[in-house]
């Protein structure tokens, strides 16, 4: 689920340095605060999504960028980097997290939540 705004009490955590961030057109997995995040660089603009694809729990940070979206490496599910919505919206969505750059650090605001351990998509209706 995308974040429309950052709560006042949000805790910003260092995700990586600007130099460590992926090059334009690339993605990477980064772990912070006990959570894996997919960090994507679309046209020079960084975006952070939940790293777990809701289909079969694939690692989005091991995927690639296609048409400005992140593609899951396991079954090619496609997610908009701004909204987290899958190419077929009724099939799923991943969280999108706010980012900001301070000096040479990329910071992220993550909510407290339980990790996803089961697919959230009904395979019979897929």
From TrEMBL:
Its cofactor is [2Fe-2S] cluster. Keywords: 2Fe-2S, Iron, Iron-sulfur, Metal-binding. Pfam families: Rieske. Residues 12-108 form the Rieske domain. It comes from the Bacteria. One of its GO terms (molecular function) is metal ion binding. InterPro entries: Rieske_2Fe-2S (IPR017941), Rieske_2Fe-2S_sf (IPR036922). Belongs to the bacterial ring-hydroxylating dioxygenase ferredoxin component family. This is tRNA-(Guanine-N1)-methyltransferase. It comes from Edaphobacter acidisoli. The lineage of its organism: Bacteria, Pseudomonadati, Acidobacteriota, Terriglobia, Terriglobales.
């Amino acid at each position: 689920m995308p974040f429309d705004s950052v709560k006042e009490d949000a805790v910003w955590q260092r995700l990586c340095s600007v130099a460590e961030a992926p090059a334009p057109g690339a993605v990477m997995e980064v772990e912070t605060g006990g959570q894996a995040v997919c960090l994507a660089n679309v046209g020079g603009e960084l975006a952070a999504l939940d790293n777990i694809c809701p289909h079969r729990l694939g690692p989005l940070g091991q995927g690639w960028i296609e048409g400005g979206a992140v593609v899951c490496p396991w079954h090619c599910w496609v997610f908009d980097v701004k909204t987290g919505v899958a190419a077929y919206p009724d099939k799923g969505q991943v969280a999108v997290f706010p980012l900001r750059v301070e000096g040479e650090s990329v910071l992220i605001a993550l909510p407290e939540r339980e990790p996803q351990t089961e697919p959230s998509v009904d395979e019979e209706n897929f």
